[in-house]
Amino acid sequence: MALIINDECINCDVCEPECPNGAISQGEEIYVIDPALCTECVGHHDLPQCIEVCPVDCIDKDPEHAESKDTLYQKYLKLTA
Prior knowledge:
CATH topology: Alpha-Beta Plaits
Distance between the termini: 21 Å
Pfam family, one: Fer4_7
CATH architecture: 2-Layer Sandwich
Keywords: 4Fe-4S, Electron transport, Iron, Iron-sulfur, Metal-binding, Repeat, Transport
Order of helices and strands: EEEHEH
GO molecular function: 4 iron, 4 sulfur cluster binding; metal ion binding
Number of helices: 2
Helix content: 10-25%
Protein name: Ferredoxin
Oligomer: single chain
CATH class: Alpha Beta
Structural class: alpha+beta
Largest sheet: 2 strands, antiparallel
Strand content: 5-15%
């Protein structure tokens, strides 16, 4: 499952540089996560790094982009090929 940033985001800029896939970018009002690039850090780290550094806990699983760990790992392999 990809991640999503909710409207509690304070635009603190700490999540964007932590994403190993470049999935996080500044949106119109808050940061956004591209579900096509988000692997929840599978293949890179044990835990999603954006969630680890977020000071306001505004990053959740995106129910519209449900993916298994295996699917996330396959996406990681394609992104890093």
